[in-house]
Amino acid sequence: MPTQQFIRSCSLVVGSGGGQGLDLSTLRIQFHVEHAVAGQTPKMLAARVYNVSPQTAARVDKEFTRVILSAGYDGNADVIFDGTIRQTRYGRTNPVDTFLDIYATCNDAAATFAVSSQVLAAGWQHADVQAAAVQHMNDAEAKYAAADAMGIQAGLMPDIPGSGCRPKVLYGMTRDICRTTAESTASYCNIQDNKLHFVGEADLRKKASNDETAIVLSPETGLVGIPVQTQDGIQVTALINPRIQIGTLLRLESSQILGAQADLSYTGINGGNLVSSGVSDESRLSVLGISPTGTYRVASVDFEGDTRGDPWYATAVCLAVDVSTVQTAKTLLAG
Q: Do 70 and 14 reside in the same domain of the chain?
């Protein structure tokens, strides 16, 4: 039975390291949360709260450092952002209505200020580089972040055998070292939920484990509009579901997806992106990336909502799990 999505649920709470907090959930809230597995931009929140008193706006600006946003529907609501307030703005939309803008990020001090100056002994592994980066990021968080920052922990890392035969020098911005490590391990580096992840490209296409259940998206379960194939993957929009996060397994009907237009200019060299199927003496082109099994993993997700308006969407870009969508014999032998 499809999960009933009825009666929106939204909670926006600002707080401080001293344990004090302020719940703004009863006011009108507009928000946008964005995060992607590719790139090192921290998870970001832009929220606008309407008709906040000048006294409350001043308290948020001067007293509070942390913001927690939960959204979804009754029975299926959870935290979609937990981070540090970086800027607030107080103004008016008209002579009557005021607003408070809150801009926040997750672990941006670690991504922006962390530096490394360390030598790993011979026999190091990529997990050792990750552990060193975590330590250096925590040093930056302790120095530059708010007192209630939760710190960084080691997250996912591809299991790559072997070790370095020579010492490894870690010197420079930690984010640059992480970028190099990601390239060396065929992974994407990002900080998510206070963890430094190196998400392997293969892991984004791995099939479901025995204890993993895919989220089925259909018009009955919150699918909005028609999924569209883009150069980055399958873009799909659904009603807000906090379970849709990076790496989440989704299931879509292939018949619901609008495929991308193939480049008809020259198909002899196509970068492994096109596959042709013979029809008599002609050929039909299609762009690879649509899974025949209908299973995908989320590579990026944005949440957009308005507690007194229409928007209440999760927009995700997904990659096909089925390896046959990546390359085929016809593609490899094209040209």
A: yes
Residues 195 and 243 in one domain: no
Of 164, 179, 201, the residue that ends a domain is: 201
Q: Please, is 88 exposed, middle or buried when counting C-beta atoms within 10 Å of its C-beta (0-12, 13-18, 19+)?
A: buried
**Domain match, 173 and 283 both:** no
C-alpha triplet 132, 137, 138: angle, nearest 5°: 100
* Calpha distance 219→35 (Å, rounded): 25
φ/ψ (deg, to 5) at 140: -70, -40
Are 83 and 139 found together in one domain?
A: no
Q: What is the domain extent for residue 76?
A: 8-106
Cβ-based burial of 261 (10 A; exposed 0-12, middle 13-18, buried ≥19): exposed
Q: Tell me the pTM.
A: 0.84
Number of domains in the chain: 3
Per-residue pLDDT of the chain (335 residues; tens, 9 = 90+): 456 688 999 999 999 866 778 999 999 999 999 987 666 678 899 999 999 999 999 999 999 989 999 999 998 899 999 988 999 999 999 999 999 999 998 888 888 889 999 999 999 999 999 999 999 999 988 887 765 567 789 988 988 888 888 999 999 999 999 999 999 998 888 888 788 989 887 777 777 677 778 899 998 889 999 999 988 889 999 999 999 988 889 999 877 889 888 777 765 555 556 666 655 545 667 788 888 888 999 988 999 999 999 999 999 999 888 756 554 444 333 43
Contact predicate 79/33, CB 8 Å: no
**Do residues 163 and 255 share a domain?**
no
**Domain final position from 78, 106, 134:** 106
